[in-house]
């Protein structure tokens, strides 16, 4: 393998820095009114179901893990919930046989025309009467950089390549599913122009897929998970196509200069490149994408992500002086516009 590789959290933080504490102030532990409105307008969800070796049984080994990703979708509001409960009809999942009670769950809800996404994480509480029931543990909004870079909402219907390497080269958006050693699933959006998001290299023994790190919400939960536990799953999209590439594999984080240079955009080389030893890659049509009818974009949602972020910061129960001061500073008149301008400036200055 090309090296060097990062195998400790300290090594990861030496490259990308520590996650600022304020990055967690948007987290809440339930579905508030804003999140429910978001879910009520969303036609598409990515979902991951994960288990660690300890959860699957001693015979699997503590270092083992099972991570799977799928899509769910339909008309706006196909999913529903309240408080600490999320419900999704099983027949609206592309892989309705995946969820089982007790699994860790992560999800990503998209809104037409909106760059930001809503992430809802928790545990599968039950699979009964044709419905997936999730006990919600975490809910927060995610920045828009991945969707801006992928130009997801400006796509028109297209016919994507029908072989793996070509499809991966054309892809502009991916949902990355990982799980921590403690069994917490994470589903992270990644986006880039075609040819800069991911590349599939054929090998004698196995295919290797590479993708790059880009500036995002600076939590880097997925990369922390990869350091601790390398199993992952991905869904890659060519915006405008209802085909998806579903990938299973094991990943490692590389600082190799040559590998990173392959993913330079606008003269900026990413700090990390991720190497995935592909165990399986399957191209297929997504019924969820067909039902969601994302392209061409019709009417955009009227939800204001800045308001959602602000409300979640106010609802966050983190204690301490810094958190208290942050909430106080965002309680002044005009705070929503201030957050909106700050986000727009960040998206402009720190896209790559």
Provide an overview of this structure.
It holds the Pfam family PNPOx_N. This is Pyridoxamine 5-phosphate oxidase. Residues 162-280 form the Pyridoxamine 5'-phosphate oxidase N-terminal domain. The protein has a single domain (5-302), classed as Electron Transport, Fmn-binding Protein, Chain A (Pnp Oxidase, Chain A). Helix 9 (305-315) crosses helix 11. By secondary structure, the protein is of the alpha+beta class. The model has no long low-confidence stretch (mean pLDDT 90). Helix content is 25%, strand content 32%. The chain has eleven helices and 15 strands. The strands form two sheets. Strands 1, 9, 10, 11, 12, 13, 14 and 15 form an eight-stranded antiparallel β-sheet that branches. The chain has a seven-stranded antiparallel β-sheet with strand order 3-2-6-7-8-5-4. The radius of gyration is 19 Å and the shape is globular. The longest helix is centred in the C-terminal third of the chain and has 15 residues, at 335-349.
Give the C-alpha Rg. Answer: 19 Å
- The first-level CATH class is given as Mainly Beta
Uncertain parts: none
CATH homologous superfamily label: Electron Transport, Fmn-binding Protein, Chain A
Instruction: State the major sheet.
Output: 8 strands, antiparallel
CATH architecture: Roll
Measured as a percent range, the helix fraction is 25-40%
The fraction of residues assigned to DSSP E strands is 25-35%
Overall 3D shape = globular
Pfam families: PNPOx_N (PF01243)
Domain Pyridoxamine 5'-phosphate oxidase N-terminal: 162-280
InterPro entries: Pyridox_Oxase_N, Split_barrel_FMN-bd
Protein name: Pyridoxamine 5-phosphate oxidase
């Amino acid at each position: 393998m090309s090296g060097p590789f990062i195998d400790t959290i300290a090594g990861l933080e030496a490259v990308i820095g520590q996650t600022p504490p304020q990055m967690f102030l948007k987290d809440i532990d339930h579905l508030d009114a804003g999140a429910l409105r978001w879910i009520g307008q969303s036609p598409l969800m990515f979902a991951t179901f994960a288990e660690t070796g300890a959860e699957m049984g001693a015979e699997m080994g503590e270092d083992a893990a099972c991570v799977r990703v799928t899509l769910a979708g339909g008309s706006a509001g196909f999913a529903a919930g309240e408080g600490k409960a999320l419900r999704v009809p099983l027949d609206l999942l592309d892989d309705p046989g995946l969820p089982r009670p007790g699994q860790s769950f992560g999800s990503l809800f998209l809104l037409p025309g909106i760059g930001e996404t809503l992430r809802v994480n928790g545990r599968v509480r039950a699979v009964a009467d044709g419905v997936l029931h999730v006990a919600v543990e975490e809910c927060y909004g995610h920045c828009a950089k991945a969707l801006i870079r992928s130009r997801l909402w400006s796509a028109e219907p297209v016919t994507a390549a029908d072989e793996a390497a070509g499809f991966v080269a054309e892809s502009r958006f991916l949902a990355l599913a990982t799980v921590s050693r403690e069994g917490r699933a994470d589903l992270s959006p990644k986006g880039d122009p075609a040819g800069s998001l991911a590349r599939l290299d054929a090998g004698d023994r196995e295919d290797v897929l590479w993708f790059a790190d880009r500036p995002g919400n600076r939590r880097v939960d997925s990369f922390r998970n990869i350091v601790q536990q390398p199993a992952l799953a991905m869904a890659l999209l060519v915006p405008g196509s209802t085909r998806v590439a579903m990938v299973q594999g094991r990943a490692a984080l590389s600082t190799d200069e040559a590998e990173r240079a392959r993913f330079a955009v606008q003269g900026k080389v990413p700090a990390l490149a991720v190497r995935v030893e592909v165990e399986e890659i399957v191209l297929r049509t997504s019924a969820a994408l067909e039902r969601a009818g994302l392209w061409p974009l019709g009417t955009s949602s009227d939800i204001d992500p800045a308001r959602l972020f602000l409300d979640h910061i106010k609802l966050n129960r983190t204690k301490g002086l810094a958190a208290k001061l942050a909430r106080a500073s965002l309680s002044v008149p005009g705070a929503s516009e201030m957050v909106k301008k700050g986000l727009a400036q960040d998206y402009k200055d720190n896209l790559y």
